[in-house]
Amino acid sequence: MLLGFALLYVGAVLFLNGLWLMGKIDDKEIVVINVVSGFVTLCVALASAFGAAADAASVKSAALTLLFTTTYLWVAYNRVVAVDGRGLGWFSLFVAITVVPIAIEGLAGAQTFTDTWLGLNWAIWAVLWFMYFLLLALKRPILQATAVVTLLTGIITGWLPGFLLLQGML
To answer: Which residues have C-beta within 8 Å of that of residue 56, sequence separation ≥ 6?
Structure first.
């Protein structure tokens, strides 16, 4: 159930960040969803890492979830202090490199639909974080492409599966 909870907010923040990158939401207004989503994923990570049922797998999940948390809080911070985002861009490269083996491991060891789906999600997120690196750290002119990929990633990897998990349909 925590996965569905977190993914619903991942979907919301990515969808809205995609709209923000398209210029449809103001810089200061996007702070709210990034802080809320950062807080939600932080709480899920803490419950996974330190809850009564914590084990090696849940601690690994918490560590990976905190990559999302850090990203969202960093986006919010950057909008409040109005910086160019290069630091976040370099962090995004770190995350992209970190999650590629997670995607490969997930896909290679997939035994169920959910395993395959999670492996594909990690692959999509790796591409998205790499796009943030190119956009923010290297200043490549890929703003519109990054905006569209962010929005679609929010729907495909977050919003829809999060909703379905919360409904008990996935």
So the answer is: none
**Whether pTM exceeds 0.85:** yes
Q: What b/e sequence results for 66-105 when a residue is b if at least 16 CB atoms lie within 10 Å of its CB, and e otherwise?
A: bbbbbbbbbbbbbbeeeeebeebbebbbebbeebbebbee
CA distance 143 to 148: 9
Pair 34, 75: CB distance under 8 Å: yes
**Do 62 and 46 contact (CB within 8 A), yes or no?**
yes
pLDDT value for 170: 82
State the chain's mean pLDDT as an integer.
97
- Residues of the chain with pLDDT below 50 are none
